[in-house]
Design goal:
Oligomer: heterodimer
Distance between the termini of chain B: 58 Å
CATH topology of chain B: Rossmann fold
Largest sheet of chain B: 9 strands, mixed
Structural class of chain B: alpha/beta
Shape of chain A: globular
Number of helices of chain B: 6
Largest interface: A-B, 32 and 26 residues
Strand order of the largest sheet of chain A: 1-4-5-8
Structural class of chain A: alpha+beta
Order of helices and strands of chain B: EEEHEHEHEHEEEEHEH
Cofactor (chain B): AMP
GO molecular function, one term (chain B): electron transfer activity
Shape of chain B: globular
Strand order of the largest sheet of chain B: 9-8-7-10-6-1-4-5-11
Radius of gyration of chain B: 21 Å
Helix content of chain A: 40-55%
Order of helices and strands of chain A: HHHHHHHEEEEEEEEHEEHHHH
Strand content of chain A: 15-25%
Helix content of chain B: 25-40%
Number of strands of chain B: 11
Largest sheet of chain A: 4 strands, mixed
Function (chain B): The electron transfer flavoprotein serves as a specific electron acceptor for other dehydrogenases. It transfers the electrons to the main respiratory chain via ETF-ubiquinone oxidoreductase (ETF dehydrogenase).
Strand content of chain B: 25-35%
Protein name (chain B): Electron transfer flavoprotein subunit beta
CATH architecture of chain B: 3-Layer(aba) Sandwich
Number of helices of chain A: 12
Family (chain B): Belongs to the ETF beta-subunit/FixA family.
């Protein structure tokens, strides 16, 4: 039950069209009916089931910006923001990230850099949810610092031989298709040395070395991947050899926008359920809501979340027009990653002892939120991107 | 055969409704609005009849403000073929809506009109019945099952104490109950397709209907808060309380 209508931004009409609102309604209903009643089990299982992902695919949630020829809907970034925000609102960020990594962090590499044959082979399955994707850039010694990766791919005739390790790979355990970054340029300039490869589950020498046990996002599977002399056909090169660095960079803009929107969805849900809790919860003879200190803190957090949302929406509109907005999306990622954690801290606090209990929603949400300041570019990295442009 | 499905834009069923401080009505500012859930069931039933080859065209119609177009668009995204928006900012009472719908029926000549049994905002539960009376058509209200035959429709109704099945001669009015079906989602590709489906815009004046309210709302108040329950140790205490305190035994 929504506490009231305050989750509907009054600015909606400025940024969104009818179809975005309808998409929001459909995702929200899907979250209520298909995710919330079951996701505690998925948290325990450590993964979101494929059946759910196929249902999302069938409703078109995985093809938002992909062309109709692949089963997509050819919409723009605003629709992506709606999906991200509504999945974030589910309170199960692990389920949300499972879907969003597939749609907006992994499959995008295939779509943006892939040739027609590669796209014809994979995109219909990606859109329908039959094929789930992961992206492997991060390594034990390199994350946001893409140039520092150590996985190598050596050309041998019509194959490449891949060796290395990837870690913290979301969807890493259960994905079918992986977009993997490896160095092909030896010790040459790093920006020309990275190539992206399409790796399929089952290729010889490619193994999921372990599933990682996480602080939050527990309904999302995260893996360490190992590549030992994996023979990859040359036709699996994604885009041009040596251009991988730029392909990776290109998608950071989208990724930061998506994570910002997801974080603000989480923040809205947390504030809503906390407002509902403090209106009910009595202490010293009155509901906690009667304490100005509490309601004003929630009001200020709500104001900041609303401001962030409107920045996300405005940026999405501009990105959809083709503007390059590295500064803005970096601001969004830094701001939202920190803000969602401030929101969670206050919301746990106002839940009192219950906020510390595993049985409370806010406890899970506070664990899930932590990574928003880390994954997809840590706050410090984002702030450097902003500082460079000051 | 054409099926006409009237739909209403109402406060979303998930929203906790608040009464305005001055008691003149409920607060609609920044409140999420959606299609009346019973109307969604009506749209779904019409689509199923078309999918079963028993209908050719589904027309959704809404009487309300400009934003009711969004509600029509939802019906189109679910699968209806075209829409009619009868635009008015006035508060519309069931009789006014029924009069407008009668005119729409006369124009469109549907074989079946499927409506929600009531709207969840005012819970009137009148429009379908009034429309049947105005048209002189047979009606099957509170349907939990609709079985369309040749020139007739069997409607299973949820009545006190059980189910009743009535056979109606077509054309007819059916109003839906909650258990008739489970409405489908509008998939994103269908949402995009719905953008291209036509919505005709009309006004009550086009139909010569005076929608001025016949009723005046004097005051709107919150329902009284439910009192906390009492736990009793055993049956004996329960009976004693029912006798002595509640006075019902």
């Amino acid at each position: 039950m929504t506490a009231s209508g305050f989750d509907v931004t009054s600015a909606s009409d400025v940024f969104f069209e009818e179809e975005h609102k309808m998409l929001r309604d459909q995702v929200r209903r899907f979250v209520e009916e298909e995710i919330k009643p079951h996701a505690d089990q998925w948290e325990a299982d450590g993964a979101t089931p494929r059946e759910l992902l196929r249902k999302m695919g069938a409703l078109g949630f995985f093809g938002i910006r992909y062309p109709e020829a692949y089963g997509g809907s050819a919409m723009d970034e605003r629709a992506t923001v709606v999906l991200s925000e509504e999945l974030g609102r589910s309170t199960y960020a692990g389920v949300a990230i499972t879907a969003l990594v597939h749609t907006d962090m992994a499959s995008v590499h295939l779509f943006n850099a892939g040739n027609d044959a590669q796209k014809a082979k994979y995109m219909p399955g990606i859109v329908s949810g039959e094929i789930i994707t992961a992206v492997g850039v991060t390594e034990p010694d390199a994350g946001s610092d893409v140039k520092g990766i150590r996985t190598t791919a050596r050309r041998e005739g019509d194959h490449y031989v891949l060796n290395g390790t990837k870690t913290f790979i979301t969807n890493g355990v259960l994905a079918d298709v992986y977009c993997i970054a490896a160095k092909t340029g030896g010790d040459g300039p790093a920006s020309k040395a990275v190539t992206m490869f399409i790796i399929e589950k089952g290729m010889e020498g490619f193994t999921v070395s372990r599933a990682l046990d996480k602080h939050g996002w527990r309904s999302s599977d995260t893996a360490e991947l190992s590549f030992v002399d994996v023979r990859v056909p040359a036709e699996n090169v994604l885009g041009e050899e040596g251009r991988g660095f730029y392909e990776i960079m290109k998608n950071f803009q989208n990724e930061r926008l998506v994570l910002g929107a997801m974080a603000m969805g989480e923040a809205q849900a947390a504030i809503e359920l906390t407002v509902a809790y403090v209106r009910d919860r009595k202490a010293f003879g009155a509901p906690l809501w009667e304490k100005q200190a509490i309601r004003q803190r929630l009001a200020m957090l709500s104001s900041r979340v609303e401001a962030a949302r409107q920045m996300i929406y405005a940026t999405a509109v501009r990105v959809a027009r083709g503007e390059q907005l590295v500064r803005e999306v970096s601001m969004i990622k830094a701001l939202c990653g920190e803000l969602v954690n401030e929101v969670m801290y206050a919301c746990v606090q106002f839940h009192g002892g219950m906020g510390f209990m595993r049985e409370s929603t806010i406890e899970r949400m506070s664990r899930d939120a932590r990574v928003q300041a880390i994954g997809g570019g840590a706050t410090e990295v984002m702030l450097e991107e902003v500082a460079k442009r000051m | 055969m054409k099926i006409l499905v009237p739909v209403k834009r109402v406060i979303d069923y998930n929203v906790k409704v608040r009464v305005k401080a001055d008691g003149t009505g409920v607060d609609l500012a920044n409140v999420k609005m959606s299609m009346n859930p019973f109307d969604e069931i009506a749209v779904e039933e019409a689509i199923r009849l078309r999918e079963a080859g028993k209908a050719e065209e589904i027309i959704v119609v809404s009487v309300g403000p400009q934003q009711a177009q969004e509600t029509l668009r939802t019906g189109l995204a679910m699968g209806a073929d075209r829409g009619i928006l009868v635009k008015t900012d006035a508060t519309t009472e069931p009789l006014a809506v029924a009069k407008i719908l009668k005119k729409v029926v006369e124009e469109e000549q549907p074989g079946l009109v499927i409506l929600g049994k009531q709207a969840i905002d005012d819970d009137c539960n009148q429009t379908g019945q009034m429309l049947a009376a105005l048209l002189g058509w047979s009606q099957g209200t509170f349907a939990s099952k609709v079985d369309l035959g040749e020139g007739t429709v069997d409607v299973t109704r949820e009545v006190d104490g059980g189910l009743q099945t009535v056979k109606l001669k077509l054309p007819a009015i059916v109003t839906t109950d909650l258990r008739l079906n489970e409405p489908r989602y509008a998939s994103l590709p269908n949402i995009m397709k719905a953008k291209k489906k036509p919505i005709d815009e009309k006004s009550p004046e086009d139909y010569g209907v005076d929608v001025a309210p016949r009723l005046e709302v004097l005051k709107t108040v919150e329902p009284p808060a439910r009192q906390a329950g009492v736990k009793v140790a055993d049956v004996a205490e329960l009976v004693a309380k029912l006798k002595n305190e509640a006075g019902v035994l």
